[in-house]
Amino acid sequence: MRKLVALPVLSADALSSVAYGPEAMLAVLVLGGAAGLRYSLPIAAVISFMMLAVSVSYRQTIRAYPHGGGSYIVASDNLGRVPGVVAAAGLMIDYIMTVAVSIASGVQAITSALPTLAPSTVAIGVAAIVVLLVGNLRGVRQAGAVFAAPTYAFVIAVLALVAVGLTGAAGRGFQPTPTPKLPVTEGVTLLLVLRAFASGSTAMTGIEAISNAVPAFQPKEWCNARTTLTWMVTLLIILFGSTMALVHLDGVVPHGSETVLSQLARRTFGPGFMYGYVQAATAAILLLAANTAFNDFPRVLFLLARSGHAPRLFLRIGDRLAFSNGIIVLALTAITIFVGFAGNTQSLIPLYAVGVFLAFTLSQTGMVVHWLRHRDQAHWRKSLVFNATGGLLSTIVFITAGITKFTEGAWVAVLVIGLLVLLPLRIRRHYDLCAKALALRPHSIELPRQSTPGSGRRVRPTAAPPRAADTEAEKGEEGESEECPEEVNHLVIVPIAGLDLAGMRALAYAASLGQPVLALHLSPTENEAERFRDYWRTWGDHLPLEVVVSPHRAIVAPLTNYIESLHHQRPDLTLTVILPEIVVRHWWQRILHNQTAPRLRRALRPLPKIVITTIPFHLPR
User: Fold this and answer.
1) What's the first-to-final CA gap in the chain, in angstroms?
2) Contact 353/405 with Cβ under 8 angstroms?
3) Are 314 and 321 spatial neighbours (Cβ–Cβ below 8 Å)?
4) Which of 19, 148, 249, 436 is the most exposed place for a label (fewest CB within 10 A)?
């Protein structure tokens, strides 16, 4: 992507936080009355400094990981497997809450302008998530002017709001408008200030997005990514800081039925076109910010599945080139949380900060270890200092949010993160045990060559199915009219994922039938395909092999296409597909293995003369 397109697309999450971050901070400070609100500008200044520090540290991440350095990759490479899984758990919470909070804030922007829709908040939010779900399942991509427009529209709206508002404040000598009389429900204590700081820090969400998407930029990718990150953070600090300044000067306080940004727009522009423009732009960028999570969350699950920490079904790409399973999981989880908290932004905020800053902390800590290991690189000391500073500040916010927001809902995020760490480790353990059980033994390297029925000698099967001069194909007849065993012409196809005991068992069973056998292997890349051919030749090349490259890791569709093509070429043959099947000990482990056989049966049921059977391989107890 060009920088002018990448900036709005990748910055939507970060810039849209201006719509709810300042309000989240003020909603805590207002509990202390006017005395509490006096801390709004100092806290905003600290948060702005943190934005700058964390962005500078992520510039070092982009330089060190020019192919994309998400928190999971950085933490796994430098801190180890468990910290990497913890970082992934934080990221998944971050993306789930991005959808829930962005949609909640977007609906609040709509109901602020149209109060009559307030009773339908939950229904509108759920409908918005469903629309995003359907769009992403159909392969919608965030690129081009269509997705850039909401971000630019929001930036223009806020800058216009601030410019007009500050001009009005200049006319009265920048004297702050007194706030309405506020009830004091809490004393202004250090705990109150820390809670407000943790809530306001949610305005930093999305800063890491550009470091995750470095390969999407035009060459020189890492250089353009760093430049775009600088632009994004500059805009974020300007929008956040100027909004807080305008809030202070206009004496605006959080109101349950109207957002702070809506109050500012109404006071500045009145209930006319510009007010409607500000609210529409706010809702649009929040919708786009929610959509970014539909791209990032499935990718985290894909990376976890690739390393064996998540079910392999998350490796699969759908017909529209989207990680459909991950998209569905994200949508259902976000809907559950959104409905559970009745679409209330302030109730959702405590769950947000914990996941965000946990990922920040582990990513920046991993970068410190990275520079200590690569001291031969230029400017490594400066980079280490920047990353250490960013990591320290992120740790402070993470601890602060976890402690001060624990009883307000952060305990839910902590509990879920714990489960999201334990579950991937258990899944990895299961896959490791499977790999050990399926590993080839010395006696399983050789397979007896296929025998011809009625003879006592071993023969090597031919790669092509036998052809008869008088076949149904040549007569132009098709159908299932065989009534005698002699009329059935067989070809046995054995799809195998790898040379393991389950695959060997299926091949041995197929060879024992005394019919022509064809082994079929699916590879995600041509390099993987050539590697498997080498393994096949090393094993002894006992049976003919066909390798199909399936770049999207799909299984059923390529198998179906291949078998269907073979069926149309040789309708005289009865095709028997023999699939190795892993039989697990517990019912919940079934989702960790592809249920290929039933899906393949459904896909091939319309075609005649195709038989699908499975050869079970029971994992040892």
Assistant:
1) 52
2) yes
3) no
4) 436
Q: Quote the CA–CA distance of 111 and 257 in Å, as a whole number.
A: 8
160 token code pair? 């216009």
Could you tell me which of 188, 189, 204, 197 has the C-alpha nearest to residue 399?
Answer: 197
- At residue 540, what is the residue type? G
DSSP code of 460?
A: P
pLDDT exceeds cutoff 50 at 455:
no
C-alpha–C-alpha distance, residues 497 and 129, integer Å? 36
C-alpha dihedral sign at 20, 23, 24, 25:
positive
- CA dihedral 105→106→107→108, nearest 10 degrees, is 50
Q: What is the pLDDT of residue 461?
A: 38
Q: Worst-scoring range by mean pLDDT, 73-82, 244-253, 360-369, 474-483? A: 474-483
Question: CA-CA distances (angstroms) from residue 597 to 114, 556, 565, 608, 613?
Answer: 52, 9, 19, 17, 8
Give percent of the chain above pLDDT 70: 90
Q: What is the pLDDT of residue 451?
A: 43
Q: How far apart are alpha carbons 168 and 498 in whole angstroms? A: 71
Q: What is the pTM of this model?
A: 0.83
Highest mean pLDDT out of 371-380, 449-458, 598-607: 371-380
According to the model, what pLDDT value does residue 269 have?
A: 92
- Contact yes or no for 481/471 (Cβ under 8 A): no
Half-sphere exposure of 589 (CA within 13 A, CB side): 15
pLDDT (mean) for 139-153: 73
Structure tokens at 533: 């051919």
**In this predicted structure, which of 66-80, 136-150, 214-228, 534-548 has the lowest mean pLDDT?**
136-150
Q: In what order do the strands lie in the sheet with 489-495?
A: 545-549, 517-523, 489-495, 573-583, 610-618
Q: Which of 435, 457, 460 shows the shortest CA–CA distance to 447?
A: 460
Instruction: Tell me the C-alpha distance between 115 and 126, whole Å.
Output: 18
**Which phi and psi angles does 518 have, rounded to 5°?**
-130, 120
Within 13 Å, how many C-alpha atoms sit on residue 346's CB side? 17
The rounded distance, in Å, linking the Cα atoms of 231 and 210 is 11
Predicted confidence band at 295 (pLDDT cuts at 50, 70, 90)? confident
Cα→Cα distances 429→121, 126, 316, 354, Å: 43, 36, 21, 27
Least confident among 298-302, 407-411, 564-568:
407-411
Closest CA to 54 of 355, 350, 356, 349: 356
Helix ranges (DSSP H) in 439-498 = 472-475
Question: What residues have CB less than 8 Å from 59, skipping those under 6 apart?
Answer: 226, 229, 230, 386
Q: Which of 463, 462, 528, 525 is nearest to 498 (CA)?
A: 528
The packing angle between helices 260-269 and 81-113, to 10°, is 40
